[in-house]
Amino acid sequence: MTSSAIAYRGSVLHCLDEPEVAGEDAIEYYDDALLLVENGHISALGHFSESVLPNGVDLVNLQGKLLVPGFVDTHIHYPQVDIIASYGTQLLEWLETYTFPAEMAFAEESTSVDTAKFFIDELLRNGTTSALVFGTVHKQSVNAFFDQAKSRQLRMICGKVMMDRNAPDALRDTVESGYKDSQALIKQWHNKDRLGYAVTPRFAPTSTDAQLASAGKLLDENPGVHLHTHLAESADECDWVASLFPSQQDYLAVYEQFGLVRKRSVFAHSIHLSNQAWNRLSAAKAAVAHCPTSNLFIGSGLFDMRAAMKAGVPIGLGTDVGGGDSFSLLRTINEAYKIQQLQGYSLKPEQSLYLATLGGARALDLDAYIGNFSIGKEADFVALDPHATPLMSRKAKQSKDWRSTLFNLTMMGDDRCIYDTYILGRSSKRCETA
Ligand code: GUN
Ligand code: ZN
């Protein structure tokens, strides 16, 4: 056994498939498990009493903790850390009032570096081990992010915003510079270690036809990169898109026209969509990022999860910080639950866990690497503490099974429940910056 092997003892819960589709078989739970990690990958998982600890391997005792796969945040903006929880506006006014001014500061490299460091610490503190991340229009914002993600050995996707109209001068690129900078970033970062690039037009209103076409060209020229943008978030935004693109049948058609709707395309929000648009997303194998904290905070609307599931569109969860008011995927699940409750659907705890882990990995087409504890996958995981607060502990003591423990954690939990986050099998506490 190599010296890079390490073993963990604790309760383990993960999804092998989507619970709403596969039922009970989708979930695997071990009350007392031995999880073995070799060279950063899962090499064994079984009941502790039936497992053999290989000679010379350190055993980390996490009894009393619930080990789940690392959370996957499928939509977040790292440059918006400082405008989290900004008062009193809805989407379009929020962009003008808070977002654009904040993003201007990322012309300064030191702002990018400082914020990227803080942002990644905060992800790990919240149990998020992979994310699909917006930079700003500035190339250096993405360099700073990838530098940080690389030094922590994280699996992350990021991209430079493309935005050549309807934004302040200082935040606009051009068709040519947006294309050239994106190409250079792809060359420098895509598929380096665990990093991937996402072509990132902000949303339809801030790109000309020519820029959306150049985004499609980037996708054609660079197989494997993602497409990351916003879709149908607020009613006012949808009206604006209809007036800017009068010849298109709907919002999604704007992206379709330029070849942006395909596998590895991720559309944040996707609230105001027809069933027909859901079917088109499904046929194209595109995915959506549901961002409940943001949708409630900005007042954008209620995501129709059943319509997405019925169409078979992969769904991930996104915090959408700074539109969303929390980095925590546990808080995000809490709000997702309430949004579905308002529509007469009670999201099952195991389906929520799926959305935050394997479902997110599938939405990003990264499930070959992350999302559960299948043998050979990268060992990114979280140890959750069901007893993190007095009230949670009181509830946890009454819990009869993993389902109620999980429901307590997802309804009442937040960063206080993250006992530790492990990257490639190693505690991330060891690589936190001061
Ligand atoms: N639509 C266009 N840009 C943004 C953004 O930065 N955040 C959110 N939530 N929606 C957007
Ligand atoms: Zn967003």
* Main sheet summary: 9 strands, parallel
Question: How helical, in percent, are the residues?
Answer: 25-40%
Q: What is the name of the CATH topology of the largest domain?
A: TIM Barrel
Number of domains: 2
Mean pLDDT metric:
97
Strand content: 15-25%
How does this structure look, described?
With 434 residues, the protein is an alpha/beta fold. It folds into two domains: 121 residues, Urease, subunit C, domain 1, CATH 2.30.40.10; 257 residues, Metal-dependent hydrolases (TIM Barrel, Alpha-Beta Barrel), CATH 3.20.20.140. Helices cover 37% and strands 23% of the residues. The chain is built from 16 helices and 16 strands. The strands form two sheets. Strands 5, 6, 7, 8, 9, 10, 11, 12 and 13 form a nine-stranded parallel β-sheet that branches. It has a seven-stranded mixed β-sheet with strand order 3-2-1-4-14-15-16. Strand 2 and strand 3 form a beta hairpin. It is globular and about 65 Å long. The mean pLDDT is 97. Bound molecules: guanine and zinc ion. The site of zinc ion has 6 residues, from strand 5.
Characteristic terms for this protein:
single chain; 434 residues; alpha/beta; Urease, subunit C, domain 1; TIM Barrel; 2 domains; nine-stranded parallel β-sheet; seven-stranded mixed β-sheet; 16 helices; 16 strands; 37% helix; 23% strand; binds guanine; binds zinc ion
Summary?
With 434 residues, the chain is an alpha/beta fold. Helices cover 37% and strands 23% of the residues.
